[in-house]
Design brief:
Layout: E1 3-5, E2 15-17, H1 20-29, E3 37-40, E4 45-51, E5 59-67, E6 75-81, H2 87-98, E7 102-106, H3 118-136, E8 143-148, H4 150-160, E9 163-167, H5 176-183, H6 186-189, E10 197-202, H7 210-219, E11 222-224, H8 236-247
Parallel strand pairs: 1-3, 6-7, 6-10, 7-8, 9-10, 9-11
Antiparallel strand pairs: 2-5, 3-4, 4-5
Helix pairs in contact: 2-3, 2-8, 4-7, 5-8
Length: 253
Amino acid sequence: MIRFFTAPEDISKNSIQLSSEDSEHIRSLRLRPDELFVVCDGNGNDYVCRLGKRNDGTSAEITDRYPSLGEPSIACKLYMAYSKGERLDYAVQKAVELGAYEIILFESERCIAVPRDIPKKIARLQRISLETAKQCGRGIIPKVTSGGSFETAISEAVKISALSLFFYECEDNNFIKTVLEQHFSPLRLHEEYAINTVSIITGPEGGFEPDEARFARSKGACTVSLGSRVLRSETAPVIALAALMYHTGNMEK
């Protein structure tokens, strides 16, 4: 079904007030009065609706409600170094599809390009997050924010999550399969104190500097390898997220 997002305050007991943008979209789709669509409150709740009594696309009548099915059981914050061109667009889109809870961008020593107008770039990426969340059935719109410097971003990532994974191409001991199996075995997933918050940290086109990897370790992050092949900056976060979702059972119905 077609999907829209709305603010919780626009939802009453039996109806939803739609935004002017969504109303215009509904009119362009020429929905029939009996056609159903979904409105999500951005807090993980879905409302099955049809056009309101006025039938002009400005309101929706609620016919059913239930928790969003598109939200994973684990809250993963993705920290990505700025990269060049449309690589960030791609990475943000795929991260939202795969279930990232939030996406934080930061500067790293080997970044080839940092946007001159960061707020403008963030606004563009937030729009990509919104459109992707609609398309793939998310129950939230993942926020895209700027994490500032490398040190600030890493310190925050380690502080807010039970497990922080720093993906580093020069890591020779910890491999993603082993690390994830260690922390997310079938038995541990059902333990009372199972991990439910993870930070994934990936680098720019040139990778991380050795000093950056040492800093991440000193803060408590686990440096992890994605294998012998060096992945592109927009590919690494996608692979890391997909592996995490698989090992936590979030690719099963």
